[in-house]
Design goal:
Blueprint (H helix, E strand, L loop, with lengths): L15 E4 L7 E5 L8 E5 L14 H9 L3 E5 L13 H15 L11 E6 L1 H12 L5 E5 L5 H6 L6 H6 L7 H7 L9 E7 L7 H11 L5 E6 L14 H11 L1
Parallel strand pairs: 3-4, 3-5, 5-6, 6-7, 7-8
Antiparallel strand pairs: 1-2, 2-4
Length: 251
Amino acid sequence: MQTGDILDLKPPAADDRIPYGTDPNQFLDLRRAKKSQHRAVAFIHGGFWRARYDLMHASHLCEALRNGGWTTFNIEYRRVGNPGGAWPGTFSDLRAAMQMIFSSAKKWDFAPEKLVVMGHSAGGQLALALAGHDERIQKAVSLAGVLDLQRAYDLHLSHDAVVEFLGGTPAQMPDHYKEASPAQLKIKAKELVIYGEKDAIVPPEISRGYVKLKKAKERVEPLVLPNAGHFELIDPRTKEWKQIEAAVNKI
């Protein structure tokens, strides 16, 4: 298995594709739990907020969670390069998707308090930022998340992807960084921060620093995977996946 080949695998089919807006990128893929436990995961894929990365590679994780008793919502959204993408359009899309999910809890047979909002990489930032803006979210999971956008800028991650996403540098757009960065938000939800020590795409120092910053004032727990890189965290074929699934089951 090559790191990142999850991006190229044929995705398993969803039960249904449901629009939450009129733009072609405003939809979610629904997978119903085979045996309902009244719980659900809203998943947000990564790709440094850029349009060339879509939700399909996250289908494997969502299918694995569905097989484990979760109803899953794999959310697509406008990204940098799409009309209306980047901040704040990207975040507005996710807020709209979450409104649909919460308002349809009875229809899709899950308890709102059992909903977990989870994201990978840039999606980890979006998941925890949602929790910081929406107190209905009681459980949030970051998988190798870009949780400190100031630090992402300092490290020039993916050729300054955060500058593209937020429309400028921290000096130019301080309010955007304040509103979008989980490191600057107050989050009441339970947070699970999962990261690999061998991640060469989103350095582990970002998750590690986030946990250190927040542990005294928020309900944040880390799960450190010593031998994992970036994509092992979303690949159900890896040995790390069982640890991740077990932690998500306990949140």
